[in-house]
Amino acid sequence: MSEAAYSKTVQPKVTVIFTARNEEATIGKCVEAVKKSKYKPAVLVVDGYSTDNTIQAAKKAGAKVVLQERRVYPGKGVAMKTGIKTALKDGADIIVFLDADIENLDSSWLDKLVDTLLVERYDMVRGAYFRALRDAPVTKLVAKRLIHIFFPELEHYEQPLTGEVAAKAEVWRKVLEQDLPDGWGIDIAILLECAMHGFSIREVHLGFKEHRSYRQYCEDVSKLGKMSEQVAVTILLAARKYNRIDNLDEIHP
């Protein structure tokens, strides 16, 4: 979109995407929350073949619902790519991803992410937040450690696996050109690819995040084994792609 579209007199078309699988407990409230944003966003829910009432709850709250392109699990990457394609086809200027299991989501989160894009002129804005002490073990023990080794220029990002991400349409078009993973590795892949392609990225704090998925693994982090594996492999593949794999030589086990 042209610079004129970012002026105060022309409001860009903002699309919020929730990828969801069996999130009937929260998806309705999440959709309703973002609809209160000053940006009056279109809301898209990409459903991962839920077996509960996620689709019905999303539609009732006013969201457009589409199924992810392929029925795979874990399929977050497939769902996100489906959402990006759909939003771009619908003419989105800015696409924002938010997690569908957030219990305290507020429209101010969306406003802050988009404000940072428009006012500070960043290409991508990523959310950070305060979380329970046991939360985000994959971030702390896998993602951040491997980023430190292979992409040290990115280690200042507090939450490289954040689910709250906003970017301009041209960024998402470039992202779709990459060989992105179909599963849990998608979040870190987006950060790495955007950084390696020279897009400007800002991380902003959104407050405290309460989400249902934390309670599912807080007492047994082994439930995150598959996620850990996919995040690790994604970073290793990116290290090989961008000729960083030899950084291993600097690590002394």
List keywords for this structure.
single chain; 253 residues; alpha/beta; 7-stranded mixed beta sheet; disordered N terminus
Regions with little confidence, pLDDT below 50 for 5+ residues = 1-8
Kindly report the average pLDDT value.
Answer: 89
Seen as an oligomer or otherwise, the chain set is single chain
The amount of helix comes to: 25-40%
Main sheet record: 7 strands, mixed
Number of helices: 9
Shape: globular
Could you explain how this protein is built, in words?
With 253 residues, the chain is α/β, with parallel strands linked by helices. Helix content is 39%, strand content 16%. The protein has nine helices and seven strands. The protein has helices at 27-34, 54-60, 76-89, 107-120, 137-150, 169-176, 186-196, 212-217, 225-241, and strands at residues 14-20, 42-47, 64-67, 94-97, 124-130, 165-168, 201-208. The protein has a seven-stranded mixed β-sheet with strand order 3-2-1-4-6-5-7, sandwiched between helices. Helix 5 runs parallel beside helix 9 (225-241). The termini are far apart.
